[in-house]
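For reference, the entry.
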Amino acid sequence: MPEQNEWEVKAANILKAQLKLNGVSYAQLAELIGDKEPNVRNKLSRGKFSAAYFLRCLNSVGVTDLRLG
């Protein structure tokens, strides 16, 4: 299995942190975006998802501002 590059790791960590901050579980996110929990879990653990998926997830949990530090 190929290693995650630094940007994949960063994107997954940002999304996971936003879920935690907003009290949203993987199951709840899956329901919000019309996906299945195992798919969400796998995408976040691998860090392999599109920018569109990233933005859709953030929007679905109510993130309107994001600071990249």
